[in-house]
Amino acid sequence: MAVGGRALSFPARIARSEAALPLGLLAPTIVFLALLILIPAAQAILLSFQAVEGTIGLEAYRRMVSDVAFADSVKNTLLLLVLVVPIQLVLALAMALLIHSRFPGHGAFLYVFALPLAISDLAAGIVWLAIFSDQGYLNTALTAVGLVQQPIAFLSYERLDLLLATVVVAETWRATADGVVAGTWSISNDAGRSRSRSGLLAACRRPPGPS
Question: Are residues 112 and 168 in the same domain?
Answer without folding.
Answer: yes
